[in-house]
Amino acid sequence: MKNAVIVKGGWDGHQPNQVAEVFERMLLDEGFTVDVHDSLGVFDDLDYLKRSAMIVPIWTMGTIEAGQVRNVMEAVAGGTGIAGCHGGMCDAFRNSTEWQFLTGGQWVSHPGGDSVSYRVNITNASSPITMGIKDFTVVSEQYYVHIDPCIEVLATTRFPSVFWYNSTNGEVDVPVMWTKRWGHGRVFYSSLGHHADVFDIPGAYETMKNGMLWAAKGREIAMRDNLSADEFSSDKKMF
Fold this sequence. Notes:
This protein is of the alpha/beta class and 239 residues long. It contains six helices and eleven strands. It has a domain at 3-107 and 176-232: Class I glutamine amidotransferase (GATase) domain (Rossmann fold, 3-Layer(aba) Sandwich). It is 28% helix and 30% strand. Strand 1 (3-10), helix 1 (16-29) and strand 2 form a beta-alpha-beta unit. It is globular and about 50 Å long.
């Protein structure tokens, strides 16, 4: 049976406990076993992470030790998936550029705060994550993110919705959902999820569920094909 590791904590304003409950139910319904941790100490156990199908971080801000983030990087490179949402994944550990490199982006602003009505536009309808999902509207924080240019964008939202300093640049589409690869591992992110009730919206729920299932498949493939992170090892300076 596939095991998912949820790690929750950080800033309480993003409802880490409530979001963890939503994700735990989501994964149990899909046949996973789920371990829920409220300490980053779980990231000290590389062997445990490597045995898991997926890591689900729900930890806005905070700090992470270099050894912990490198264990996560190593586990994902070996096939363990990583999937998360909102600040719990891409505004976690602002001190760690390694974390940002792994996850594919970093939150920088949400003009208008938690009351912006905006459209989530599906831009890749052929992905198994978004297939059959129509564009939908959210009233929440609209995340402006800086991104890794290698990500595969699945959905976007258009700025500005709220007039501010950035508005003089004109309209721009900013990613809401994306995937990327890290070694043999798979990474999925959705910027939705300021509060747990956003997942009451079918489009938000289904894309999050599909993204986690997609990310977890990397472990199956790595085990089937006897793949390892070792092939990516290098004696060159990377950080």
